[in-house]
Design a protein that fits this description.
This protein is of the alpha+beta class and about 90 residues long. About 25% of the residues lie in helices and about 35% in strands.
């Protein structure tokens, strides 16, 4: 297994980093060309799977969190509005 970090827009304001765990790499040759078939999964999902967590994100979950936040007057305190993210 290999861990790979992919960086988009490196050293800019909108830099984004994605980490992956590669499960298999198959190398084939066709004449003078080398072809790699790579299978992997995002590191976050790989680590969560090892710990046995299950996360499901949906619009309904977010709306429930937002409704609870709004109805309990958390908007008047230091609590930030809930964000749907992982």
């Amino acid at each position: 297994m290999y861990k790979v970090k992919v960086i988009f827009n490196k050293m800019t304001e909108d830099e984004r980093v994605f980490e992956f765990v590669l499960h298999s790499i198959v190398q084939t040759h066709e004449k003078d060309e080398v072809i790699y078939d790579i299978h992997g999964v995002g590191l976050a999902f790989e680590e969560l799977g090892k710990l046995g967590y299950k996360i499901a994100l949906s619009k309904d979950d977010y709306e429930e969190d937002y409704k609870y936040w709004f109805e309990n007057h958390l908007s008047d305190t230091e609590y930030e509005m809930p964000l749907a993210n992982i």
